[in-house]
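Dissemination and training. As part of the outreach component of the grant, students in the summer workshop were shown how a complex can be specified as a set of sequence lines and then modelled as a single object. The example used during the hands-on session is reproduced here so that future cohorts can follow it. Participants entered these lines:
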Amino acid sequence: MTDKRITDHPVLGPAPGERLTLWVDDQEIEARSTDTVAGALWANGTTTLRRSRSGQPRGLYCGIGHCFECRVTIDGEPGKRACLMTVRQGMRVETGTEA
Amino acid sequence: MDADVIVIGAGPAGLTAATTAARDAGARVVLVDENERIGGRLPGQLYRHKDTWVIGARTAERLAEEAAEAGVEILSGHQVWSCEPGWRVRLESSRTLTAPKVVVATGAAERPLPMPGWTLPGTLAIGAVQQLVQVQRILPGRRVAVVGTDPLAMTAAEEITLAGGEVVGIFMPSGEPGQHAESSPRKVLHSLSGFASAAPAAWQRLGARMLRNRAIAAAAARLMPPSGIPIGEAKLKVRHRAEAILGAGKVEALRIRKVSAQGVPVGDSREIPVDAVCLSGGLYPLQELTTGNCSLVEVPEVGGLVPLHSPELRTTAPGLYVAGNVTGIEGAAVAERQGALAGTALAADLGAYRDPGARLREAAAQVELARAEAVLTFLPGIFSGRRRLSELWEAHAAPGSQSEGKASDDA
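and obtained this result:
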């Protein structure tokens, strides 16, 4: 796991969830079952989730499903909001594919 | 009909409205939310109140258990696309739910705080920070700058440092067009008074109360040390504004500049290396599902455009109720009591009570109590805003009123 993970929170205690793996652009990454897709990618250092029409990088912004900046393709389905989708073992995520 | 009641939004207001209607009236209630996780914004909330921590996730668990016990059917992970009189609630899956009554408890969203470089990955709104840190236990960055001056900016800074991240400072917005947030140190100090009860140290509470006085706030802004006011481990830099977010492909630095007490830039700018910037522009009520269905009124003191509603949270549309931040920006405890009130009004309209008046008065008193005891006051004018809303409803409901019985288009 990476240095962005909070393993033991002073008020909330140890991080919940089980470890699992998913595929991001054909690379296997580790995540926790409590992660959203956006969170798992964030913790693994992937900040760019898609590109704007003019090619500018875009990533997680509002985190509550409102801004639609974090759209990725999940298990072949495009336009899914990475901040709302919880990770599942073996899930396949593609970034940067949508304008 | 698929149900007696459809509740849209599974935050504190929606959960409590659903539970109350199901329990008190034996109503068949379906609760819909686009998130897979129940609780709305509650699971992301964590703040200090006196000597204890208020943990939103625990409240969410309790409310979800109560809803399950009351027999509420919960459809999580289902986005609502539209809500039409009748009531027909269309879901993303093309499925349509129908019920004679609907409660809209869609809450609020953050106002954007646009500034140069804000689309760079690594720029996050406060909601994203709360979800990352408290729910998923992931830091937004190792070195983080917070930009914004509302209570949410302060709590986010505390949450990050508590979890082990470094907050290099809480900075003023630059005050450019499109930003709703205050950028003058004088005004910011005045608005900070809403943060008084959550301020960690006694002297800060005292200080914050004094700042409600505009003259004292103005004097304090002149005396304020450029190093900033301590907010937990972080410093509120009322004399520095954020001018631009910089980086190649992702956030790498924040450019700041010193300002006078009136917010006028003085001196050169400098760049602070950071790997994330959190922007806090404040909240506004979400009206996507009420627009076109009932009368809306603009009341800036409660956060903007809200449904015209009775003290019992009925709207101008028959069978349409509202609860929580969709009626104005307040904390989760108020939203929870509003949910109970809307659920009680609903149950009363379904004939559940022998003495509905007494039940409604009791539920309304609980809302007022939660409002008076609120730890965080998001908007300094909330009480006068609520009074204004009551007056608008009375004018609407008065015999002989022009708008009686029909939805006007105040919006």
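Chain B has two domains: 5-110+283-397, 123-279. Students were then asked to discuss how this feature might be tested experimentally.
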